[in-house]
Specification:
With about 220 residues, the protein is an alpha+beta fold. It is about 60% helix and about 10% strand. The chain contains nine helices and four strands; from the N terminus they run βαβαββααααααα. It has a four-stranded mixed sheet, covered by helices on one side. Strand 1, helix 1 and strand 2 form a beta-alpha-beta unit. The N and C termini lie far apart (about 50 Å). One of its GO terms (cellular component) is cytoplasm. GO terms for molecular function: glutathione transferase activity. Its EC number is 2.5.1.18. It holds the Pfam family GST_N. This is glutathione transferase.
């Protein structure tokens, strides 16, 4: 399996493609990374992912797959060496998938919207983001292990990894606070442990470049230019 060709098409600041990179590196899988310009999509990306036309895209021995959560599961099932990403217990596995979706569809969506908007729309998105963060904090408190995946980083840690690194950037860019450390101690503690992991720490986009990028996105998406 290790000798087969693995390619990942991604974008440097995308939490969706970077979570797939984290999974490959945790598993020790050799791969070729191909940076895509998502604002000027290459013919290769459009050919490999004609439906969504988005990154990440994983190519493994000629097989093409997309959508980061699907890719995390594929990586875990294809390269079975430790660390195992998904829980072996069916209930715990379904719970991990559920909370990954909650974080994505609630907290991420509302946080990004709050960063890019202003006025009443921003306040509504901010309120919804905090409510979603509170639900996630409750789940974090129920977890008594080092990571959400147990003693090693797992699927849910990778799925929620953006909370630890991207969310603080969005808070700064949007002049807002969603995860107050005094109100979200479990989330804050988990974030620190996650970012301290060597594989994660060594594979993060530069924060200064992220700030510049998201300030520009906020201006464009928020109609401030």
């Amino acid at each position: 399996m290790a000798s087969q060709e693995v390619k990942l098409l991604g974008f440097w600041v995308s939490p969706f493609s970077i979570r797939v990179e984290w999974a490959l590196k945790l598993k020790g899988v050799d791969y070729e990374y191909i940076e895509e310009d998502i604002f000027n999509k290459s013919s290769r990306l459009l050919e490999l992912n004609p439906v969504h036309k988005k990154v990440p895209v994983l190519v493994h021995d000629g097989k093409v797959m997309a959508e980061s959560f699907i890719l995390l599961e594929y990586i875990d099932e294809t390269w079975k060496q430790d660390p195992l990403l998904l829980p072996q217990d069916p209930y715990e596995r379904s719970k991990a998938r559920f909370w990954a979706r909650v974080a994505e569809e609630k907290l991420l969506e509302y946080s990004f919207t709050a960063m890019c908007t202003h006025g009443e729309k921003k306040e509504q998105a901010l309120k919804s983001a905090v409510e979603a963060a509170e639900k996630i904090e409750e789940e974090m408190k129920r977890n008594n292990k080092k990571f959400l995946g147990g003693e090693s980083i797992g699927y849910l840690d990778l799925a929620m990894g953006w909370i630890a690194y991207w969310l603080p950037v969005w808070e700064e860019v949007g002049s807002m606070q969603i995860v107050d450390p005094s109100q979200f101690p479990a989330t804050t503690a988990w974030s620190k442990r996650f970012l301290d992991h060597p594989v994660i720490k060594q594979n993060l986009p530069p924060r200064d470049k992220m700030l510049v990028y998201f300030h520009e996105r906020r201006k464009i998406l928020g109609g401030l230019v």
